[in-house]
Write a structure and sequence with these properties.
This protein is mainly alpha-helical. 47% of the residues lie in helices and 5% in strands. It has a two-stranded antiparallel ribbon with strand order 1-2. A two-stranded antiparallel sheet has the order 3-4. A hairpin with a 5-residue loop joins β3 and β4. α3 crosses α4. The longest helix is centred in the middle third of the chain and has 24 residues.
Length: 306
């Protein structure tokens, strides 16, 4: 017999003898029984619901303690952590903002990227389908036993308040809801990108901050209405001044005051002219688009309009 073959047979006999002996058990050790856990992939419809929730909620609400995250989890028979992770997987593909501080799984589902393609292609029609699915899911859950800390509710509106309220009815209600969801999403994007700070004054009081459109909402396409590059995070005073064309930004993001419309007074000099020539605080992602700034120069800024 060849030496190699002898060695192989000896090794096999030793292994058989070892397997035949009873195994030692140590106190506190669990059984060696292997339990197989079946992984349930996310369906298209479930992903659409998570997408709708992401569009509505503030980033701080998108964790496993969020009231509406837990409601959706109960509706689709998943854990809150699973829903929160799905939302952050979706957020990783959002071109309008950065998922700052939290990320999803390194290798997420293809649906997490595809859902943005569907939204880009179909806009509000696709969003309305997502919201309808989410609405039906939330209605199916008895949330009377779910408690949520006051600071977990959105300062804008939670998904529960936005979707489950009874007025208005029918198609009008869905249209209004889509519009309000787009506004929530646009504001949340700017709050994230500008770190919750007015880009002109540095004010950080959320209640005083407005998600201002560079190209006005009324003349923007559905995608332009939610594009972070079409927005500035401003305090209420300078939002109004920008919206009415009393101030604008040049191509280097410096503040320009309409000398033809704003006369020099002590107050005007303090609150408007004092900012002229200053460069705004730029966002972490998606700075103001020069295309939209050009529109504001030509069609909104009062010196140009005159």
């Amino acid at each position: 017999m060849m030496p190699e073959r002898q060695s192989a047979e000896c090794l096999a006999q030793c292994l058989r003898r070892k397997d035949d002996q009873p195994r030692k058990r140590y106190p506190g050790c669990m059984s060696t029984t292997v339990i197989k856990v079946t992984r349930r992939n996310w369906s298209r419809e479930e992903t659409m619901m998570a997408f709708a929730l992401y569009m509505i909620l503030e980033p701080r609400e998108c964790d496993d303690k969020g009231f509406d995250v837990r409601r959706l989890a109960a509706a689709i028979h998943r854990t809150p952590n699973s829903v929160a992770l799905k939302i952050w997987n979706i957020a990783a593909h959002d071109a309008n903002r950065q998922a700052r501080g939290r990320v999803g799984m390194q290798h997420g589902s293809k649906l997490d990227a595809e859902i943005w393609e569907w939204y880009t292609a179909e806009g509000d029609e696709f969003l309305s389908q997502c919201l309808t699915l989410l609405h039906q899911a939330l209605l199916s859950v008895d949330s009377s036993t779910m408690k949520s800390a006051p600071d977990r509710l959105s300062s804008v509106e939670s998904a529960s308040q936005l979707l489950v309220s009874g007025n208005p009815k029918g198609a009008e209600r869905l249209t209004l809801t889509v519009q309000r969801v787009n506004q929530c999403y646009f504001r949340n994007s700017l709050m994230t990108n500008y770190s919750g700070r007015c880009c002109m004054t540095g004010i950080t009081v959320p209640q005083l901050l407005i998600a201002s459109h560079i190209k006005p909402w009324a003349v923007s396409t559905p995608m332009e209405k939610t594009a972070a590059g079409n927005g500035l995070l401003l305090n209420a005073l300078h939002d109004r001044a920008f919206d009415q064309g009393f101030i604008t930004l040049d191509d280097d993001y410096r503040i320009v005051v309409s000398h033809g419309a704003v006369r020099h007074t002590e107050s005007n000099d303090k609150w408007l002219y004092a900012l002229e020539g200053q460069r705004i605080h730029l966002p972490h992602a998606n700075p103001p688009s020069h295309e939209f700034l050009e529109y504001h120069h030509k069609h909104v800024f009062l010196d140009a309009a005159a």
